[in-house]
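Entry 14: structure prediction run for Leucine-rich repeat-containing N-terminal plant-type domain-containing protein. Input pasted below.
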Amino acid sequence: MASFCSLTLILFSIFTFSTSIAHSKTLKRDVKALNEIKASLGWRVVYAWIGDDPCGDGNLPPWSGVTCSTQGDYRVVTELEVYAVSMVGPFPIAVTKLLDLTRLDLHNNKLTGPIPPQIGRLRRLRMLNLRWNKLQDVLPPEIGDLKRLTHLSLRFNNFKGEIPRELANLPELRYLYLQENRFTGRVPAELGTLQNLQHLDVGNNHLVGTIRELIRIEGGFLVLRNLYLNNNYLTGGIPAQLANLTNLEILYLSYNKISGAIPTALAHIPKLTYLYLDHNQFSGRIPDAFYKHPFLKELNIEGNTFRPGVSPVGAHKALELSDTYFLV
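Run finished. Output tokens:
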């Protein structure tokens, strides 16, 4: 009898909890913001956004791409994922009124214009994905106010100007994708202070400067695994200090104007797996230590002026060609 009463109490509690969620009201601020966004979108999105409440009203489900959660007596919008639906026009500024957003994904649309400075309001945002749009202008420094951000993808847009140093104010940032834009200037060395940054891709821009300038902050980039600097206008040489980035697995330097010899120290990065040095102005010879590296799978050195006559050492299939093969 006691166990029956306990089971009844549990079922009653679950029913009561479910009922309270079903009858929780969506915060008016979020309802208004989503309806503003709805009014600005094309039919591809609007046809799936039925009803007045984006979180659903009991009879109707939540709007497609909208995720809500309950906070006290209200529901709030925590995720907005509207991608690959040919959304056109400027970045919908009403998005910045959804103050409880943790995830914003508008990738693969046709958004134009700048990211508004009001983006800094989204203090709970952890993932921001705007890749494959037509966004342009400079990045607002307010993006550095998104202190909880772990993933930032702005690749394949038309952003210009310098990469803002305010990105170094994002202590949780792990993945930063800025490739395929029109950024100019230098990659901020301050990014090296991000203690959680694992992936940095600034390839295919118009960036200048040297690797030495990028890694000048002592103890920087300690957990960085992937570094993409390809297809820019970097000059200078590869400093031996780059070997201090002991967690590097991918180093992509192709299509720059980097010159000089390849330091042997680079071959002692313990986890280095892919190294792309092609189409630069390197000279000298490839240190034998590269051919003995236990993890190195690919080494691309074509399009340089390395010295002829260096015989490869080791069993790496990707390294069985002599340096003379890559002479230009």
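Notes: The two ends are 88 Å apart (CA to CA). Will compare against the previous run tomorrow.
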